[in-house]
């Protein structure tokens, strides 16, 4: 007996008002208990597809069928700013129309599932990025959904957190659909891929683990390129023969006519090779140029049993020095960077006059009410023209109508690219980077790593992505987990 289908898209078309179509006659089905990856280029409609499943938006034409009113739970990429002042208990209470009497017991159960222990009266905004990532997942679980939608669930998670999430998903007996750029993570539990194509607006489905599917897609592209190359050669050969025979008489003219028909057939047989995302251009972050001790760190606060403990250290960073901050989720890494940036850390001294470029994992440096243009304009240095600014923005795929959009309307990936464009225009003397690969398309990451490596100023960085860290040459490491 065939396994039960829990979700089906039937010829779904969707477009936002005054925008080009996002989905065009999309059809696919998902069986109960399947664990699938949702792939696609930037802007292909992955988030839109999630919204259609959740019923937040409706198709223009076609239908989305959910079997027997199956329930849906979502773990979003980031906690909404309005929710940061809520306590843990208040935040989880939002998952229910009527708050159950055993809410604390339910919270304890889902927090245990994501391997997180924090008091329920703690404010969500006081948690580290990694702890917030686990809370987001737990929020999806507390709804006990038949279909669980995960959007970049490994962002901010340390290795232990990712391993725990993989173990949970392997054992989870309900349907899971995941958007993620973490290939190793996906390969551990994925049994199929739904591929959204930004150019055709169509969907393709594949069966197999993640790496097998990616290889299959690449092989298909290679076959398509090879087939088109062969057809192109045959078309050119026939055109050359047509030019030669068409001036001859009798049978030669008939042969030329036949060759023309073959050319038309060859043209029809050419296939549209899948195109992938545009990649950001190579870039450099100009440095302010400072002489002397740019940053001096004499003490740090380490979180032990949910309480800060001050530990003495002796770190001095000058121009071209790079410091990696390491340690498990919740130990105080992001808090250290935030207090360093806002000047509230008594154990840290920054050279006066230093321009500080801060990439915050929650995009706290961005004013969501500003347009992209105004956000970039606010950080340009003397001598930088509007044309220069626009050229920098275009290198990060921010051009045209995007420049007039409010930051609140950007995707998380676009906010990340905007943050890098701002760093280029700011020309900082000190670069403070907190998880700078979160939300960033994997194709952009090698270019970003190269730009950071070439940067002539001082760098302090947190990252849980080993492949990214390995690409950058660090002079010092501060592992808060050792204290």
Automatic annotation (TrEMBL):
Gene Ontology terms, MF aspect: ATP binding; ATP hydrolysis activity
Matching InterPro entries: AAA+_ATPase, ABC_transporter-like_ATP-bd, ABCF, P-loop_NTPase
Pfam families: ABC_tran (PF00005)
Gene3D superfamilies: P-loop containing nucleotide triphosphate hydrolases (3.40.50.300)
Entry keyword set: ATP-binding, Coiled coil, Nucleotide-binding, Repeat
Domain ABC transporter positions: 7-223, 295-481
PROSITE patterns linked to this entry: ABC_TRANSPORTER_2
Claim: Repressor is one of the keywords in the record: no
Regions annotated as coiled coil: 214-276
PANTHER family from the UniProt entry: ATP-BINDING CASSETTE SUB-FAMILY F MEMBER 1, ATP-BINDING TRANSPORT PROTEIN-RELATED
Record-given protein name: ABC transporter domain-containing protein
């Amino acid at each position: 007996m065939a396994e039960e289908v829990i979700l089906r898209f039937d010829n779904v078309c969707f477009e936002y008002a005054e925008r080009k179509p996002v989905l065009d006659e999309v059809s696919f089905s998902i069986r109960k208990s399947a664990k699938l990856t949702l792939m696609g280029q930037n802007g292909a409609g992955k988030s839109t597809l999630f919204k259609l499943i959740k019923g937040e938006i409706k198709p223009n034409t076609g239908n989305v069928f959910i079997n027997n009113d199956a329930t849906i739970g979502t773990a979003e990429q980031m906690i909404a700013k309005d929710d940061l002042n809520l306590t843990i208990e208040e935040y989880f209470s939002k998952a229910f129309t009527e708050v159950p009497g055993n809410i604390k017991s339910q919270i304890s159960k889902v927090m245990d599932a994501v391997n997180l222990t924090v008091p329920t009266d703690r404010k969500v905004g006081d948690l580290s990025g990694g702890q917030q990532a686990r809370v987001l997942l737990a929020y999806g679980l507390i709804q006990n959904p038949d279909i669980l939608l995960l959007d970049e669930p490994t962002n901010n998670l340390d290795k232990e957190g990712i391993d725990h999430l993989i173990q949970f998903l392997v054992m989870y007996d309900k349907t899971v659909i995941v958007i993620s750029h973490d290939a190793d993570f996906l390969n551990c539990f994925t049994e199929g891929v739904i591929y959204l194509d930004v150019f055709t607006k169509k969907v393709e489905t594949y069966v197999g683990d993640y790496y097998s599917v990616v290889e299959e897609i690449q092989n298909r592209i290679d076959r398509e390129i090879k087939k088109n190359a062969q057809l192109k050669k045959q078309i050119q050969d026939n055109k050359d023969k047509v030019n030669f025979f068409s001036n001859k008489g009798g049978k030669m003219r008939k042969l030329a006519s036949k060759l023309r028909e073959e050319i038309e057939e060859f043209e029809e047989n050419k296939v549209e090779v899948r195109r992938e995302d545009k990649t950001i251009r190579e870039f450099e972050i100009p440095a302010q140029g400072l002489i002397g001790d740019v940053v001096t760190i004499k003490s740090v606060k380490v979180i032990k049993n949910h309480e800060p403990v001050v530990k003495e250290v002796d770190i001095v960073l000058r121009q071209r020095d790079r410091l990696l901050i390491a340690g498990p989720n919740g130990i105080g890494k992001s808090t250290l960077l935030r207090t360093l940036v806002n000047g509230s850390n008594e154990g840290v001294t920054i050279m006066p006059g230093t321009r500080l470029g801060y990439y915050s994992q929650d995009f706290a440096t961005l004013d969501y009410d500003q347009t992209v243009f105004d956000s970039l304009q606010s950080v340009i240095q003397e001598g930088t023209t509007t044309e220069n600014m626009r050229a920098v923005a275009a290198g990060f795929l921010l051009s045209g109508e995007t420049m007039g959009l409010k930051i609140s309307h950007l995707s998380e990936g676009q906010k990340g690219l905007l943050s890098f464009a701002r760093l280029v225009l700011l020309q900082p003397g000190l670069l403070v980077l907190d998880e700078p690969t979160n939300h960033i398309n994997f194709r952009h990451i090698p270019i970003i790593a190269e730009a950071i490596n070439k940067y002539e100023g001082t760098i302090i960085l947190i990252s849980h992505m080993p492949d990214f860290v390995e690409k950058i040459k660090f002079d010092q490491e501060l592992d808060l987990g050792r204290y």
